[in-house]
Specification:
By secondary structure, the protein is mainly α. The chain contains six helices and two strands, in the order ββαααααα. Strands 1-2 form a two-stranded antiparallel sheet.
């Protein structure tokens, strides 16, 4: 705190004015232009994968091939061309949409940036992006889809307990109680 005395009145009376000259510390975001660009790409990816066109492409692709996938350690030879077709169809659609929405977008630059920011990406988005590069994530997606289609999905109903919140019926309560000898 800095105190300055000012002679504001001509009669020798001084007014003491206090000024706070200490600098205040503010928390500024240290995000760079690259971080902002990464965030914009992730936001666009969220929009694209939630779009009906992308959802329909993925749904019809999975519907076409889900019966080929078995929940076993062994990988069938047919999985490779299905994986490649998936990448050609959905990754190319995603990239095309990103190029249209973000001027100068580069998938290879984004892939490098994704490696640096992988902890910042929500699980669902990261898992979906992983299906383009990680065959096991792709296979797991199909196995889960098949289990769901065949009614073998995760069933949590065994852990559910249903209880009535309504009052106990008056007829089930005792009508009178007797205390002491009768």
């Amino acid at each position: 705190m800095d105190i300055r005395e000012k002679n504001l009145l001509g009669g020798g009376e001084n007014i003491v004015e206090m000024e706070d000259l200490d600098e205040e510390d503010f928390a500024f975001s240290k995000s760079s232009a690259a971080d902002a660009e990464f965030d914009a790409v992730i936001g666009s990816i969220e929009d694209i994968i939630m779009d009906d066109v992308f959802q329909q492409l993925q749904q019809s692709f999975m519907e076409k091939y889900y019966q080929e996938f078995d929940d076993t350690e062994e990988n069938k030879l047919i999985y490779t061309p299905i994986f490649n077709e998936y990448i050609d169809l959905l990754e190319k659609h995603l990239e095309q949409q990103l190029v249209e929405r973000i001027p100068g977008f580069s998938m290879s630059a984004f892939t490098q940036s994704l490696k640096q920011h992988k902890d910042e990406v929500s699980g669902d988005i990261f898992d979906m992006l992983l299906t383009f590069t990680d065959f096991m994530a792709f296979k797991e997606m199909f196995i889960d889809y098949r289990a769901e289609r065949e009614g073998r999905g995760l069933d949590l109903s065994d852990g559910l307990v249903v209880r009535s919140l309504s009052c106990v019926a008056p007829s089930s309560l005792p009508t009178s109680t007797t205390v002491g000898p009768q």
